[in-house]
Structures are given as structure tokens and as C-alpha cells.
Please model this.
Amino acid sequence: MASNEWPARLHVVTGKGGTGKTTVAAALALALAAGGHRTLLVEVEGRQGIAQLFGTEPLPYAELRVATPVKGDGEVRALAVDPEEALLEYLEMFYRLGAAGRALRKIGAIDFATTIAPGLRDVLLTGKVKEATTRSADGRRAYDAVVLDAPPTGRIGRFLNVTAETAKLAKMGPIKSQSDGVASLLRSPMTCVHVVTLLEEMPVQESLDAIAELSALHIPVGRIIINGGRPPLLATGKVTKTELKRGLAAAGLPTDPATVNGLHAEARAHLTRRELEESLRAELAELGRPLLELPLLPGGVDLDGLHELAALLLAG
Model:
């Protein structure tokens, strides 16, 4: 993949619930793997959405291969980050508390810590994403790109603003050092946050709010991805009952008043909907950020559908 198409190394995908952000994140990971690249797809919300999309068993706390792109010999690995496992890993890495950490887990202390301090939970989750993004061996990066299926737009700013959250927990030490490193990565050219939306009022408004919040936090925003697009059903912006009756007759269908009136009402509703969508599309375009539209998949989202969306993202 040409570096100027999707140049970041860490791609954060967010969107209001129900917009298909997990689907887009999975398709993007497939797209980035084209041409022999290795990508990691990460989820942090415990929903096992990635496993459902790829038809695998629930993901453990391990980086497992889940797919390969249609072209090339690349691969997509997936990881479900568990806060408790991440904290155990953290305790072992910085404090050499492997056995002690496992003992704490048995008595519920790990779950207690991540529950009473949600800021700590986010530091652990983003810290694991940073580690995977920057990991290297023998001078070669472990992954060419990492795609994060992030929390929804309503929480994305707080989730990524780990420095502010950590300030409530620690003024110095490994936790603060780790959060500072995460904050540096998230504000660098290596990171890009892509916002997924539908052409509906609530998702678009949440997208606008999230982009404004991320911009204020100096976190790079990438593309706005309009998901679930439908082609126009009518060639013109107006349709009359006479035209409908003529068309029904030509097709050998009933032309009684009830049928014509019902079809005319549906046509008007469709045109009203299209006007709203055009208005929302223009509102998003005013931000001056790259817009990319993905179609609604009539057959639902399966592996073939993910590859279809990946091809469109690759063409970008």
C-alpha cells in the first residue's frame, strides 16, 4: 500500500454505537495488510466483536491470526485487550510482581483497582496498544500498522487523553511515564483517528463533537467514513402520480389509486430522506477533512463483505 494513502502507523477507529465502526476497523486492517503487510486489529471494550466478524472463537489475550488479504501474502492478527491481563503484564514488567499479581487477581484486587480508577483502566488499554505499535525485533517493526477498534465518539476524547486521567492517579513513576509515552504517540504523525458515521442526525452530530474535541486535544484526525450508503432510487428530484401510474402499467402491475398513492407517499419520503442526507453530507464536508463513503452491504457483513469494504478503503 502506498504510504501516502493511509500514512499513519496507528489507526484509531471511532464512531457512535451502531454506525459499524468495528466492521470498518476490521475492513481497514484487511486493506492495510494488502501487499504483504502485517497488521494488528485490537479491541478494548470486551465485546468480542472481532471474533464475531471473522467467525472465530472468542479472542484470548494473545495476538492471533484471523485473516489474510485477497491479494498478497500479508496477514491480519487480532487482539482483545483485557484490563486485568494488561495490569498483570504491567505489574510483571515494571515491578516483577508476576506471582504476587496473580495472587491479587484471585482475591479480586485487580478488578477492584480497574473499577475504582477508570483512568488506570484506559492507561493500561492504550499502553498495550502503544506497545504493539512500537514493538520491534532485529530492527524491524512487529506490525506495519495497528488498527484500534476504539470506544464510541461519546467517550473517545477521555479515552485517548490519558495524560489528564493519569494526573489524577500519579505524579511520577512508571504509570506516569507510560501515560506520557502514550500521549506522545497519540499526538504524533504516527497516529490518526478516523470517525465512522451514518448520514443520520445523531451520529453526524456526535462525529462533529468528537472531531472538535480531538482537535482541541491536538490528537490527529484522519478521515470521516460515511458507512451504510444507499444509492438513490429515483433519477429525478420529483415524481408524479401520473408517472408512477404509467410506470406500473408498463411493468404489468396494478394501477389502482391505493397502489399509486402508497407508492407516491414512499417516493416522497425517500426524497425527503435524500435531502436530509445531502444536508448532513455537506455539513461534514465543511470540516475540510477527507470523506470516504462505504455502501450498505445487502447481504450483511461476512468475510466476503469485509474484503469488499477493504477493497474500497484501499482504493480510498
About this structure: Residues 10-230+296-315 form a domain with the Rossmann fold fold (CATH 3.40.50.300). The CA atoms of residues 227 and 294 lie 5 Å apart. The beta strands are 10-15, 38-43, 64-67, 75-80, 136-137, 140-141, 145-149, 191-197, 221-229, 291-295.
